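Review session, final week

We close the course with one last complete record, chosen because it touches almost every idea we covered. It is Four and a half LIM domains protein 1 isoform X4, a protein from Trichechus manatus latirostris with 210 residues. Go through it on your own first, then we will talk.
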Amino acid sequence: MASHRHSGPSSYKVGTMSEKFDCHYCRDPLQGKKYVQKDGHYCCLRCFDKFCANTCAECHKPIGADSKELHYKNRYWHDTCFHCYKCHHPLANETFVAKDNKILCNKCTTREDSPKCKGCFKPIVAGDQNVEYKGTIWHKDCFTCSHCSQVIGTGSFFPKGENFYCVTCHEAKFAKHCVKCNKGLVKAPVWWPMKDNPGTTTASTAKNAP
């Protein structure tokens, strides 16, 4: 996704009138006063704000002649209103990304496009250690036992429906027990059919997109 820069200044001129002209709208004399020239007409600042000023896409207020205006694809902002939709970092002097009609900084764009952890639902960004099982991804420390909440990480586990159990909790909750000594019969995964063997995760460290 490409980064952009906002377009340059708008097509109107602000100055102080030295000649004898009247405001195009209210007909007040402009000589010696600040004025705006737009589309071949001269107008006072008050009438410019009322009749000609663009509306800021963020605060929905007019962008006055004395304000710095930024625009991108027929949308306009005060320079102080042009910021990242997510983190509100000011972007008047920086590159940005437009996505789904929203303005994002490059950092938040990376987070938006990053895969989400199944455990905490936060993005998995560059440098995060993560584990993957059957197409689902977690931060390494978010992949925990559904019973005792101990971090499984890259250790062995048993999947049960939507839940995952460490070997100890699986044996305590689901293993068959000896009728004489009441101890679990499962000492190692080999006691179970292949589909009940502890699962394995694929570990990796997230990297920046090339």
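Two points worth writing down before the exam:
The chain has three domains: 21-52, 53-110, 115-185.
The two ends are 12 Å apart (CA to CA).
Good luck, everyone.
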